[in-house]
Amino acid sequence: MRHARRRVVRRVTRLAAVGGLLLGGAMVTNAVASEPADPSIGVPYSARPATSMGTDLVSRLGTSRTAGSWVDSAGRPVVGVTDEKAADEVERAGARAKMVRHSMSDLKSATATLRSAPRVPGTAWAVDYKSNEVVVRGDSTVSASDWSRLTDVAEGIGGFVRMERTEGTFTTRVNGAQPILSTAGRCSAGFNVTDGTTDYILTAGHCGPDGSVWFADGRGRQQVGSSLKGSFPGDDYSLVKYDSGRAGEGADVVAVGGGKGVRITGVADAEVGQKVFRSGSTSGLREGEVTALNATVNYPEGTVTGLIETNVCAEPGDSGGPMFADGIALGVTSGGSGDCTAGGTTFFQPVTKALTELGVKLIVAKQAGGTGASPAPAASQGAASPGSSAPVTGEDVSGLLARLTDPRNVGPGLLVIAGSLVALVATRWIRAEQDRKAYRQYYSATWG
């Protein structure tokens, strides 16, 4: 534990603010680090963890001869294998082999059977590579009759499905406080990403439907942007498009509280047993390890699959916040059970899949001796922290409409285009004003 803390301290750099807010403990911060690094646009899977040897061996040997890989307490990759020949190949490659009874094909078949059973909200399952079992958990909302029916399904699969009751409830992590806020509730920003033209915040899909307007303050004066391209349930990711179109300086840094941040240098898939850190606007920086991959969670709102399971705690409002290890982006917070007093289980949407599905790339810090990745779009002059872009005002919109509709400034053909733009701008302004008023009413009770 002390070693892990020393390691993260080495990765943390003190930030000097540039006239903006550090939103809670998880907002992707827009500040200048003491040793500025030129940000660049990363690519999906641009970095691989040191433990990827196990993943490579599993891929090479196949799902009928292996049952996943993980990292032991010494940091050495371990591969579950079903025959001696596979064990020899693993050992020759420099990893440790563990003989197991059930192959990955068996384990995947078991989870497929569970998915085909009637859905029970409040349940979750994942493959525990270390014990060579599928673990099914039921929270306090699951009735005795539903649990009994699911237990019958598990017993029909075989003795390698373990049933566990857990305290608390499996919920998404949103509530009605601060810091990126909308009438949908409070979330935490995850990582800054770009499509090469426009910058976005990657966060959780359940935080709000497409079109949700997000603010950085409790009075709805600092508009961040709007949600789009979300996926929930099924997956749990979405983008918040910056109103300014730019993330600004320090786009490659995630805040961890106390005026500090961690530079993000790449993105990769998580590994079971990997030590990880999570930052959130409610509970700040927390640490733990990855306990399973490809987890399925039956939230009350719907089922989400392909998640990373961890024993890192999280609380309402931490949704969407970043999970990382050694500066490598791994996931954004989806949900879980428990809290940071009693502990619990937290699930994360893998960043790699979200980037691929959304067609965006992570904005990362350029490493020394880098490979010449494309530079990030330049930050706007004098930009403050993410979310500080000025809200659209009535005066701004009125002036724009006057210029567009002045026949002395445009020809007849352009007036048709201008009419469409007028409608678009007016609709956007009306939606933003409606959300702003609803937001102020929603949060008025919390104003000091």
Descriptive notes:
This protein is an alpha+beta fold and 448 residues long. The chain contains 8 helices and 28 strands. The protein has helices spanning 2-11, 52-61, 84-92, 104-116, 144-157, 351-358, 394-405, 412-443, and strands at 12-16, 28-29, 32-33, 39-41, 66-71, 77-81, 96-99, 123-128, 133-138, 161-165, 171-172, 180-182, 185-187, 191-194, 199-203, 213-215, 223-231, 237-242, 253-257, 260-263, 266-267, 275-280, 284-299, 302-310, 322-325, 328-339, 343-350, 361-365. The chain is globular and about 60 Å long. It starts with a helix and ends in a 5-residue tail after the last helix.
The largest sheet has its strands arranged as 4-28-14-15-18-17-16
Strand content: 25-35%
- What does the largest sheet look like? 7 strands, antiparallel
Mean pLDDT: 75
Radius of gyration: 24 Å
Report the end-to-end length measured between terminal Cα atoms. Answer: 39 Å
Q: Strand pairing plus helix content: what structural class?
A: alpha+beta
Q: Any low-confidence stretches, pLDDT <50, length ≥5?
A: 1-37, 43-47, 173-178, 369-425, 442-448
Number of helices: 8
Helix content: 10-25%
Shape by Cα distribution? globular
Count of beta strands = 28
